[in-house]
Amino acid sequence: MINSVRVIERLNVGVLETAVMTTRWSRRGFLAASSGTALALGVHTTADATPLTSTDITETSEAADEFATLRAKWRTLILGEGFSPTAEPFTSRLTELGTTADQLRSTMAPTSGSLWPDLVYADPEPDTDQESYGYSGNLNTSYTRLGTLAQAYSQQGTGLTGDTGLRDTILTGLDHLYSEVYNENLARYGNWYSWQIGAPQALLDVCVLMYDQLSAMQIADYLAAVDHFVPDSAVSSYSGTSTGANRVDLCRVLALRGAVGASAAKIVLARDALTPVFPYVSSGDGLYTDGSFIQHTTVPYTGSYGSVMLGGLGMLFALLAGSTWAVTDSNRQIVFDAVENAWAPFLYNGLVMDGVSGRAISRGLSASDAKQIQQDDHLRGHPILASIVLLGQGASSAENARWRGLVKGWMQRDYYSPPMSNPSLGLTSLARLKGVQDDTTASAIAEPTGHRLFTQMSRATHRRPGWAASISMSDRRITYYETGNGENLHGWHTGSGMLYWWGDTFCNGQYSDAFWPTVDPYRLPGITASRKVLADAAGGDWGASLPDVNWVGGATDGQRAAIGQYLKGLQSTLLAKKSWFCLDDSIVCLGAGITCTDGTTVESTVENRNLGPTGTTTFTVDGTAKPTTYPWSETLTGTEWAHIGGHGGYVFPGGATVTALRAARDGKWSDINKGGATTVLNRKYLTMYVDHGTDPTNATYAYLLMPGATVAQTQTRAAATSWLTILANTDSQQGVSVPSLGFTGVNFWFGGTVGDLTASSPCCVMITEKSDDTAVVCVSDPMRMQTSLTLTWNKAVSSVISKPSTVTSATTGSSLQLTFGNLSTTAGVTQKITVKLG
């Protein structure tokens, strides 16, 4: 039934438009109707919507033109610009879009409970259980498919551009979903996201693309539905599901609702509701000063939700730029700064590191759509590159130029998965990246070297010439892993010290090529874990399970680092102390205090390399080539070094007993994601691990990882027994020194003395002695609990050149004694002291 507002809207068109009324109104006709007497009545369109009054819309042609301008800008933002439909890859992509749309059109069959037979949205028992999530997801996908049809109708070169039959199909679909399920009289079920973000975003995109083909009544209906499911109150509080990336998504809905419905009030609301997204946070969701990005309270999410937030802000900034409602909040500079502070550290040769992608790592080929391209770290990284390009349009000219250089470099180096060949990248993103690729004024910027420690999300990245690595940990603030929506069912140990690494021109597909469904989830590289069998989604949804530990973090001078993790196993009695000392050509990995009473074996995985479908890579141990057959395993005793051809080397100081194996492993995406494909995949792995036995007590391990090292380099490092000194590897302290680098690093799990260092309380210490007789002493409080700390370095120091305010006293002479005040409020951030030796 047409309500009073819609009746008056239609009457207003007769008054304000000189053209003859038709069931399909022109763009200007609806604008005129929207600014008339109906709105002056102040009638609610929904129970929870803000009353609309004549002040919501300025009754001038200029205002009408401004809303039209917003819709035109959004149309360009979602369709793309600056590309030729007769040039590749655009020609093929447009043809594919037309083919897909034609198939969707032919299979659409409106009936009670569904729009497509394979997408039933009618929930017989509507609630919020997993089954209902599926039904609400089908609603979301139904609107997404209509969006695909609208794209094919609106894009040039699809073969369906302006096709009247396709137009009628789209309008039929929109009306069917409105009358059946997405309207102002029904309640939501299943996943809130489908109703407040997924469906309305797709619906409003279609409204923009099909605007001239929709009647005022249709638009009023669809907007009433949006107002019902996404009321103003959705952004009234910065909490719950209205933070970070979700808040940006909600603001997108409100802004587009305002543009389609010519409501200045909605656009103002959307713009202003972005304000709490910008400032740095000290807890919960958002951006932190150290570059961390958290979503869902406990999950490092730079690569997934962070990508959505970056892309969403870029689009909203671009949409509103130059309008009455431009985003002018000075804190938006924080977002610009985050491009290099938060996102760039996790981008490498076009990929975004899996350690900050949460449950997205489990998203591969979908069970419901065989044509869906498998997601992976590269395919997730490319949209971030495109978002950076778009965001640069609103940044300073210097930032924009530098970012285009970064993006160009990432694109050029992504040999494994070139962005312009990314089958899941939209035409808009492709066009932006093609613009950078062809920009002769943009010079590719090389990958930086250095270390970044993200204490607020228990992550670290270490970049050296020729390779990069990342470490994922967990503590009482950061979850072991995230599962939810039936996703990432076996991610249990991804926060147990997983050590990822990639080469500059090699091994970039290590975690891309069906790694997650085929890898042994109890033997992820770098972790220590009990073989206790865990159930799917063990620990609970949405990052609910947190280890009861404080000492996780480290210290860095920006080039090297000492990092530690006090590990408690998920649903396990496992305890361990793990340390990583990140150096110039290697990472020294130590484990100690490994204790467990699960009644199962405990292992520390030195490496688990994905060798692809064939797996013929050589494996050399102490100069002897091992078999390349599958399966194969051997317990290697007294092992001093090992080398995996085309990957890198591993050194075991003093010799170690290591189990090595080759295994061809089967797996399905559906094993780790309930929506995943059931196709069986097979990948071959070369694994090395230290078997600590059943119920170990104070077990240890020690090894060096040398990414990209040759056989000769690995053998030479193993023979140089004085290159590395392990100062301690116990449950109380772990530390190393490398005299040739002037490096000393110690993780004091408890106070005590290690080598020349004595600490009164738990802390992390890293020292680099330089050739100019200066030294940099880096100290941190990973526990965030020390109100005082005394550190003594038994080394002659003549003076202190610089120190932070946390150092309350510094005594020099035959030794250096530093007294720190309250470190509990420093968030585990490194305190740097520079001294003169002698």
UniProtKB/TrEMBL annotation:
GO terms for biological process: carbohydrate metabolic process. Residues 74-408 form the Polysaccharide lyase 8 N-terminal alpha-helical domain. GO terms for cellular component: extracellular region. Coiled coil: none annotated. Gene3D superfamilies: 2.70.98.10, Chondroitin AC/alginate lyase, Polysaccharide lyase family 8-like, C-terminal. Residues 451-709 form the Polysaccharide lyase family 8 central domain. InterPro entries: Chondroitin_lyas, Gal_mutarotase_sf_dom, GH-type_carb-bd, Lyase_8, Lyase_8-like_C, Lyase_8_alpha_N, Lyase_8_C, Lyase_8_central_dom. Residues 725-790 form the Polysaccharide lyase family 8 C-terminal domain. The active site is at H296, Y305, R359. Keywords: Lyase, Signal. GO terms for molecular function: carbohydrate binding; carbon-oxygen lyase activity, acting on polysaccharides. Belongs to the polysaccharide lyase 8 family. This is Lyase.
